[in-house]
Design a protein that fits this description.
Helix content is 59%, strand content 0%. It has one domain (4-176): Hypothetical protein af1432 (Orthogonal Bundle), CATH 1.10.3210. It has 188 residues and is mainly α.
Length: 188
């Protein structure tokens, strides 16, 4: 499991992608994973802890390297993947780090641009992209959540929860307060 101190040290540079976004993405990654696990590929059902650990780390790191000067930094996922070994170090296995790199890189391109994935890769990426997308409820502009892009029906069922979580955490300025508000009372 990702520890709180590491999460708090992984804050991004971009105003819209700070630690609060990472923590909400982690929360929704776990929620979607839990809701969809029965339909997951066998490899994921056999080792769910491995995939949850990768989702947690990817949530922490996926937007960490987003540019503060570019309107949209299409390379930020690759830049985040390039920092995975440095940031995670020996805390996670090589296999987890490779999955985190995969999720960081492929969370950026449109689904139609991604080909050649295994069933396991495709499923876990859908979970991660939905988790990241659910936090788009925080935007009130052209980047807002478009539920037609959500890949799972269970994700669409979490939209109201995403709005509630955003309302509850949007005025919090301390990353630890956001983490506590989201995880302390909701994650076993």
């Amino acid at each position: 499991m990702v520890n709180k101190e590491l999460i708090l040290s992984a804050e991004g540079k971009c105003d819209n992608h700070r630690v609060d976004h990472s923590i909400r993405t982690m929360y929704f990654g776990r929620r979607v994973f839990e809701l969809e696990l029965a339909n997951a590929p066998e490899e994921i059902r056999r080792n769910p802890d491995f995939f949850v650990q990768a989702l947690d780390w990817a949530a922490v790191l996926h937007d960490r390297e987003m540019s503060v000067t570019e309107k949209y930094d299409f390379d930020h996922g690759k830049k985040a993947a390039n920092r995975v070994d440095e940031i995670i170090g020996e805390v996670a296995s090589l296999e987890v780090k490779e999955m985190v790199k995969f999720l960081c890189v492929f969370h950026v391109p449109d689904d139609s641009e991604i080909t050649g994935l295994s069933e396991t890769q495709a499923w876990i990426l859908k979970v991660f992209k939905d988790a990241d997308s659910l936090d788009r409820v925080r935007f009130d502009n052209g980047d807002k959540l478009d539920e037609s892009y959500l890949r799972f029906g269970s994700s669409r069922g979490l939209i109201e929860e995403a709005k509630e979580l955003w309302e509850r955490t949007k005025t919090m300025t301390e990353p630890e307060a956001v983490f506590d508000a989201i995880f302390e009372n909701r994650v076993e």
